[in-house]
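User: Thanks for the earlier help. One more: Integral membrane protein. Can you show the sequence and predicted structure together?

Assistant: Of course, both are below.
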Amino acid sequence: MLLQTQLKALLQDGARGAERHDARHLQRSWRKFAAFAYVVEQYGYRYDGLSPLSPQGSPNPYFAFRRMPDAAERAARTAARYPDALDGGPLPGMRPGGHRLRPLPEARRDVDLLHARIMVDYSRTHRRRGLIALLLIPLVLLIPLSQTGFSGPALLVCAAVWLFFAGLWALGLLIARRRHRKYGEMLRAAGITWPRT
């Protein structure tokens, strides 16, 4: 159902001639979202990175899809070949059946490269997202402290809670950097410079 909703929103933007379509990752996995990005491309919108709509540090950012010069022709051609796409029918480049965002062998490389771009972009959001949370945690901890008093043991518990979340943020940052490096190398090996800015 989410897939149909996202496709309908895309086709509405396409019919209006919108230069940019913004979408959030609503699929079960990032690979499925990359497959969705491949489908979107068949309707005339190319993946363009993080959307300016996204608040800085958002855990669920918007991603931008930029209208291609031949978008109207692409959309018409795809709609003619896949008339039941919005009603649960086959999607361009995807296997038919229950899980509709499984790439066919001929589309797999393109989907993998889209996945790498998306992961590079998403990994860039972790640092700010975690810092915002680390700054908010002490403010949230003031609530129980105001009830129990600012005693030594209460302050130690709050410090331990903050250190726990700081450790989680540091681990997440390490994972995000590794992910950025891994997918960045994959894109460079394919001759793709990403991100463009």
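User: Great, one quick takeaway?

Assistant: The beta strands are 20-24, 45-50, 62-67.
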